[in-house]
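Need a sequence for this fold. Nothing fancy.
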């Protein structure tokens, strides 16, 4: 099951700031929530940086958000893959932000790496393999730390960007968040059929398809009707929400992984809006919401407190978050070394360079198709 990293590494504080909450109230609330957030040094420090490192909270910022497909303490040292990789770029005046999903099958160079248990040479592979190679042979927080570190190095190789902060989210923890909220409402932009959840003839929950080990469909199971999420405004319960944002195979618009990326981004914004709407006017519910977010996250705030991040980003509201499609949301598939991969277009590479230079606004003026409709 894919799990997603959410830009709410700073959400706990932003919830209060966005709703006009006082700094004092924010600090008190965050003190309780922060205790439940697992903090790790996820981003490697370059011992010989080629450019000056800005450690302040001023100016443009890039936050790397990563989702994993399995809890690291539930493995025996097997590799963990990152099923969602998002760069959150915040412009220099902190008035707007951009969410850019990197396709997990993107064909990239992964640097040489030794995590203390296993080592590998530099070479080409899918970008989600970077996190996996970093975790091999490790468990728990050590797996998360080294997986994130190698993924960070890979992204720097690709884009030149070293993140200013980072977060890993066990998306299974978001079930608790939606449970607290009761529901999450969003616009479904294309009718989506689930390959994971359905009902049998007795109305019991059942799997509608047999799934191959690589995540593709093998065949439909007779007598099971899959969940269908129809186009239009929908309010999801926890199971429906997590199921909807997993889907890629049976989307009506046939956008596959780009559709799933789009739905993840839309879900992020929807759950933030829902949390602001339902949490800010409920003093009893807000700490529970923040605690649920905290338990799902492992965060590297690069030496800053989350409350300081929130104050620095207080002008950034969910409605000012713009979602971006790599490759204009169009498949650019190829088969390399027997693997089905996604090649990033020249325009996408230009987009990534624009992010590093904080010139994404100028890029989008000449490349409007990169902006998602929702």
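Here you go.
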């Amino acid at each position: 099951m894919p799990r997603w990293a959410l830009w709410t590494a700073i959400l706990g504080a932003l919830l209060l700031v966005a709703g006009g909450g006082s700094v004092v109230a924010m600090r008190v609330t965050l003190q309780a929530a922060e205790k439940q957030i697992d903090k790790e040094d996820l981003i490697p420090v370059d011992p010989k940086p080629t450019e000056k490192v800005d450690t302040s909270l001023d100016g443009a910022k890039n936050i790397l958000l990563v989702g994993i497909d399995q809890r690291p303490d539930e493995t025996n040292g097997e590799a963990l893959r990152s099923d969602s990789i998002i760069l959150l770029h915040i412009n220099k005046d902190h008035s707007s932000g951009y969410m850019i999903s990197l396709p997990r099958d993107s064909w990239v160079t992964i640097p040489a790496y030794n995590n203390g248990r296993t080592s590998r040479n530099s070479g080409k592979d899918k970008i989600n393999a970077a996190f996996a190679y970093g975790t091999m042979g490790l468990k728990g927080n050590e797996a998360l730390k080294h997986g994130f570190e190698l993924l960070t190095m890979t992204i720097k190789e690709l884009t030149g960007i070293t993140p200013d902060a980072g977060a890993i989210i066990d998306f299974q923890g978001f079930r608790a968040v939606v449970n607290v909220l009761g529901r999450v409402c969003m616009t479904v932009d294309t009718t989506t059929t689930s390959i994971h959840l359905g009902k049998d003839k007795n109305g019991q929950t059942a799997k509608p398809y047999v799934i191959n080990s690589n995540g593709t469909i093998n065949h439909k199971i007779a007598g099971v009707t899959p969940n269908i999420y129809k186009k239009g405004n929908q309010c999801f319960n926890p199971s429906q929400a997590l199921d909807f944002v997993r889907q890629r195979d049976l989307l009506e618009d046939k956008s596959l992984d780009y559709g799933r990326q789009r739905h993840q981004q839309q879900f992020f914004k929807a759950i933030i809006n829902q949390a602001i709407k339902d949490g800010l006017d409920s003093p009893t519910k807000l700490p529970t919401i923040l605690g649920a977010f905290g338990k799902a996250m492992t965060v590297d705030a690069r030496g800053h407190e989350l409350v300081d991040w929130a104050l620095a980003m207080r002008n950034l509201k969910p409605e000012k978050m713009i979602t971006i499609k790599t490759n204009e949301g169009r498949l650019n598939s190829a088969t390399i070394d027997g693997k089905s991969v996604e090649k990033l277009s020249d325009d996408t590479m230009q987009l990534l360079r624009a992010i590093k230079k904080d010139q994404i606004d100028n890029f989008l003026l000449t490349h409007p198709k990169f902006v998602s409709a929702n």
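For context: The domain at 11-181+280-370 is CATH 3.30.420.590 (Nucleotidyltransferase; domain 5).
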